[in-house]
Amino acid sequence: MAIQDVPGSMGTSASFILRLGQAIFSSASLLSMSLGVDFYSYTAFCFLVTVMGLVIPWSFTLALLDGYFILVQCPVRQLGILLVIVIGDWVLSILTLAAASSTAGIVDLLLQADESFCPPQYCSRYLISALLAFLSWIFSLASSLFNLWLLPSL
Amino acid sequence: MAIQDVPGSMGTSASFILRLGQAIFSSASLLSMSLGVDFYSYTAFCFLVTVMGLVIPWSFTLALLDGYFILVQCPVRQLGILLVIVIGDWVLSILTLAAASSTAGIVDLLLQADESFCPPQYCSRYLISALLAFLSWIFSLASSLFNLWLLPSL
């Protein structure tokens, strides 16, 4: 199969959309968690903020690269570059899943506790942040799977 | 590359050891979480018990199959069977990671809380269960990566 035929792999418009989705969802998750909420009192929330801080520059850079490759009509064919992208994607998607699950576990616990422990306006922010992190994870998993699919043909 | 040359893929002794490790660690995690501890008061702990209940039969069956294939000196070469094993491994490893992270997040929160909320003998059991679940996830990830590596050659 020709490399252009794999939709979602590096240098295609589907990949650009996936990267843009990752960057948007992870930024929204970070903003929802960090603005006006005392996230630093929970280890899992600090972990989520750290991981989102790693995912945002990674996704944004790759979105820019994808945009450039679409403009010059030249998909990436170098094995080394793709290997780095696939490994980076896998590591970040594992970290995102771990951060999103631990946040979701704690949000569930806080929602069951009484309101003095977690005011409703805080809890809803935590919940939205966890949901957005899960969405970012799904997009990240999709792009790493598409790039992995392309690897054996190189 | 010949199929027997991929160590850790289905039907090799390395794969048998990985499967055995998964079965042992997930059983130990389940026992540590469920025996004598009130795990059902936390959603994440119930999720961990459910996932471990899925991982144990899966790993144990595949360990038995691996043992059989080693005895008859016949590695698995059917694409369909390997595809089912790889997809099952991926799904279970994602579920195990999610369960282990959410459990670890809650254990960390409970360790920070006062002792009336979580007696030390309970908390250490939860902690051990989360650690064993992470170990089971590492083994599960390893065997799914080895089997995935084998797929394009079939």
UniProtKB/TrEMBL annotation, chains A, B:
Residues that span the membrane, as ranges: 39-69, 81-106, 126-151
Localization: Cell membrane
Main location class: membrane
Membrane topology reported for the UniProt record: Multi-pass membrane protein
GO cellular component: plasma membrane
Domain annotation Casparian strip membrane protein: ranges: 10-139
Record keywords, A-Z: Cell membrane, Membrane, Transmembrane, Transmembrane helix
Positions in coiled-coil regions: none
Top-rank taxon: Eukaryota
Pfam family membership, one: CASP_dom
Family, per entry: Belongs to the Casparian strip membrane proteins (CASP) family.
Subunit note: Homodimer and heterodimers.
Xref: PANTHER family: CASP-LIKE PROTEIN 5B3 (PTHR32021), CASP-LIKE PROTEIN 5C3 (PTHR32021:SF32)
Name of the molecule in the record: CASP-like protein
Native source species: Coffea canephora (Robusta coffee)
